[in-house]
Amino acid sequence: MTLGLPGDVSRDSVGRAIVHAGHVAGWVYLGLGALVALTMAFGGEPSGWIAAGLALVMIGLLSIVALSRTLASTLLYLLAGGAATAWMTALAMRSGYDLGTTDNAVVAIPCIALVLVGGSGSGSVVACVWVAVAYGVSQLAVWVGAMLSGSAFHVSIAATAVAAFVMLIRAVDGLTRRAGLRRQAALVRANVAVREATARRDHELEAITRLHDTAMVQLLAIASTGSGPIDERLRADIRHDLSLLVGRDWFARHGGEPRIADPVVTADGMAVLDQAFAMAADDGLDVQMTGDLAVLALLGPLRAAELDGAVAECLHNVARHAGVDEAEIVLGSGGGEVTVAVMDVGSGFDVDRVPAGRRGLREVVARLEREGGSTRVWSAIGLGTTVVLAMPMGGA
Question: For 316-374, how does the pLDDT look when each residue is reduced to its tens digit (9 = 90+)?
């Protein structure tokens, strides 16, 4: 029985519901026992008052179990309830009603109340153990009461039937819940498989798209150069695009293997823009820097590496598209962020009309956004371009 609940919730919820139902039934039986005892008392049987008091004591102890279903409260109820059951059995068998053997409705009342204790824990196996223990205590108490009253001891059929019924319910609950958990586990595994297949498909599509775009762009560039040796700048562009295809940084967005960033700190702890200056050197770009590289030490290694890669991509864009061989980098910090501005006075472009297939700017934005950073671009045709990269301080 799962009641439509998830497996990890149904175990406790259904178990508590069954135990609570048992407590309510126990209170009903003990209330009925107190009523029978009071009837005996008013009928001229003084022992009825004692039996009624014992039933009320058991009601109180069962209430403690219901409020705090712990091992201590359960054992207290079973021990004290067993003693009360033995006493009530002796009183009932000594009364003038000639009940015969202990297998009668009056003696069965406290026995059934003991069987319905519930016990600590909500698992089916644990619950069945508690029922068995409570049933044994009840029948032992009845035997003691029979010995004290000098009457014949017979096992209570009613208490036995209730114990068997409760154990059957808990066994069926345990078996059906396990089947439900197995079905739920199968659904979870199927869901994981679907997600993995989706991620694999997206990864393959992006890999194919990147390979196709890069190959077409570079083949067109090579074809446009005509015969003769390839220009060194074109060689650098091809090497850069190949490094992007072989690298793993773009694959990390699909939950693939962790990207291994190049070191971005020197032996003395000073953060540097290794990738950016290496890219500028490969592209033949003269870079002027304003500000202190030490502000990069405010970033964690991963964020510093992402910022370094984004600056490198910006410088490569300058060398490829701006038509100039100079650029300027300005470093700063404030407002909980480290900022790097990459500026040039080249040809510029219309920011609103960036071709969809132009990957350079998208790479810059993607690198920053992966670590919570942001990118702002200002450009005008004939007036140059300024790209401001902002990365939150700290991080991994």
Answer: 889 888 889 899 998 988 888 999 999 999 888 887 776 654 566 777 787 788 888 88
What is residue 394's three-state secondary structure?
strand
Q: How far apart are CA 17 and CA 122, in angstroms?
A: 10
Q: Which two tokens stand for residue 211?
A: 């390979």
pTM reported for the whole predicted model: 0.42
Both structure tokens of 69: 């279903």
**Tokens standing for residue 299:** 């970033």
Q: Which residue stretches of the chain are H helix?
A: 7-42, 47-67, 71-94, 105-115, 124-149, 157-224, 232-246, 274-283, 301-317, 359-370
Question: Which amino acid would we find at residue 25?
Answer: A
| DSSP element (H, E) containing 288 | strand 286-290
Beta bridge partners of 342: 329, 387
Cβ atoms of 298 and 255 within 8 Å: the answer is no
| Residue owning tokens 């290694």 | 301
Q: For the domain bounded by 262-392, which CATH number is listed?
A: 3.30.565.10
- CA distance linking residue 333 with residue 342, whole number of Å: 15
pLDDT digits (tens, 9 = 90+) for 154-190: 898 988 998 888 888 877 777 776 655 555 555 556 6
Three-class secondary structure of residue 388 per DSSP? strand
Domain residue ranges of the chain, discontinuous segments joined by +: 7-186, 262-392
